[in-house]
Design brief:
Elements: E1 2-6, E2 9-14, E3 25-39, E4 46-51, E5 58-61, E6 66-68, E7 71-73, E8 83-97, H1 99-106, E9 117-119, H2 121-124, H3 127-137, H4 141-158, H5 164-175, H6 185-189, H7 193-204, H8 208-225, H9 230-236, H10 242-253, H11 257-260, H12 264-267, H13 269-272, E10 283-285
Antiparallel strand pairs: 1-2, 1-10, 2-3, 3-8, 4-7, 4-8, 5-6, 5-8, 7-9
Helix pairs in contact: 1-4, 3-4, 5-7, 5-8, 8-10, 9-10
């Protein structure tokens, strides 16, 4: 486990030594003593949080609703700075599910969440308590990742697949980093526009146009975190100009590009998900203090 320092806050971060057996699944482990009002930045994945520690994460949204414990959120949740996380002594495995595998793993479409954070118990029932106990009982993060991966692989194999045409459309959006022409996607997969839009949204949880904007934003935001200038990021990421980038970042996060560049939710990705094309540059140290506890 490594330590991610952001200001006075210290997070313990662990990464799997092996890739998941399910394509489109990535994981990281977190141990945070004092998680104080963390802005949840929209991400083009379904986020699954499996908590097992002495504390419990709390999610607060703009409507005043709260979710505690293990939760799941669809792609793009938190737009406008509407979702914040907090808690003490939080330990969890965070899973990022590509939307094309999320329906099978979760047993429900991300569209069913209606843009909200959902308690995992509402989807998986008593199994969540058993998972929590098992994650807490094992002695190492690698064992936790292996346990989680086996669970996800089992559920993925038994769950309903996404249409190949929807998978292909999503792949084009991600592969182009959000620069694909939305109007051409239907023709590429051999469907009518109406059919693709309907199936895409019902199976992945957001319409193609929103997916394009979200993927483009995610790429741009991580480049900002990596220290690149807003003007260059705007030009390279396909925005009309720097003002266009500013408006998009504000719409997704409720913050300016300069503020987003310092967001720990994004900055930790350089450690937790180091395979990203534009890794962040946070301060990292070896295991320290409380974060070095259980390994």
């Amino acid at each position: 486990m490594r330590t991610f320092m952001h200001g006075a806050a210290a997070w313990g971060v662990a990464c799997p030594q092996r890739p998941s057996r399910v394509a489109g699944v990535t994981m990281a482990g977190f141990r945070v003593r004092d998680l104080d009002a963390l802005r949840m930045v929209p991400h083009p994945a379904v986020t699954l949080l499996l908590e097992f520690g002495a504390g419990s994460p709390v999610m607060d949204d703009a409507a005043g609703r709260q979710q505690r414990g293990s939760v799941v959120a669809g792609p793009g949740v938190g737009a406008g700075g509407a979702l914040w996380a907090r808690g003490e002594n939080v330990e969890c495995v965070q899973v990022r599910l590509s939307p094309v595998v999320a329906r099978a793993v979760l047993g429900a479409s991300p569209a069913d969440f209606d843009g909200a954070v959902v308690s995992l118990e509402d989807l998986w029932g008593r199994e969540v308590s058993r998972i929590r106990e098992r994650l807490g009982d094992v002695s190492s993060w690698q064992d936790r990742f292996a346990l989680t991966d086996a669970l996800l692989a089992r559920r993925h194999e038994a769950g309903p697949p996404v249409d190949p045409e929807v998978v292909r459309a999503w792949g084009r959006i991600v592969g182009s980093r959000g620069l694909v022409r939305v109007d051409g996607l239907a023709a590429e997969v051999g469907w009518s526009r109406k059919r693709l839009w309907s199936r895409f949204r019902s199976q992945l949880g957001l319409p193609p146009k929103r997916a394009v904007k979200l993927v483009r934003f995610d790429h741009a935001a991580h480049r900002l975190v990596a220290g690149e200038g807003a003007a260059q990021v705007a030009a390279d990421a396909g925005y009309a100009d720097q003002s266009h980038l500013h408006r998009d970042v504000m719409a997704f996060t409720g913050a300016t590009p300069a503020t987003v560049a310092g967001e720990p939710f994004l900055a930790v990705d350089g450690i937790a998900w180091p395979s990203r094309g534009t890794p962040a540059k946070p301060h990292v140290s070896a295991d320290l203090g409380w974060a070095a506890g259980r390994r």
